[in-house]
Specification:
Blueprint: H1 3-12, H2 16-33, H3 36-46, H4 55-60, H5 62-75
Helix pairs in contact: 1-2, 1-5, 2-3
């Protein structure tokens, strides 16, 4: 499972399926806000939502996924441990 999906699931307490849908929605939204040349690279940063992200892309997205997980966790009233 994608690292970002795991983070969303842990922080929100939602099911894996719900977490995947949230990540897909956020990725789609972010891609609409970026220039076309950059938007195509977003998929590489988050990796395949059905499987594990490659090591290089997982490292590159660590800061962004941490920030996103904090925001989503706060939305659901979860505090970081």
């Amino acid at each position: 499972m994608n690292e970002l999906v795991q983070i969303v699931q842990q922080k929100s307490g939602l099911s894996e399926e719900q977490s995947i849908e949230i990540v897909k929605a956020v990725v789609a939204f972010v891609k609409t806000k970026l220039p076309a040349g950059l938007a195509s690279h977003v998929d590489g940063l988050v990796g395949d939502l059905g499987g594990a992200a490659p090591a290089a892309t997982a490292t590159a997205g660590t800061d962004a996924s941490g920030m996103l997980s904090s925001v989503i966790g706060n939305m659901f009233g979860k505090k970081e441990a």
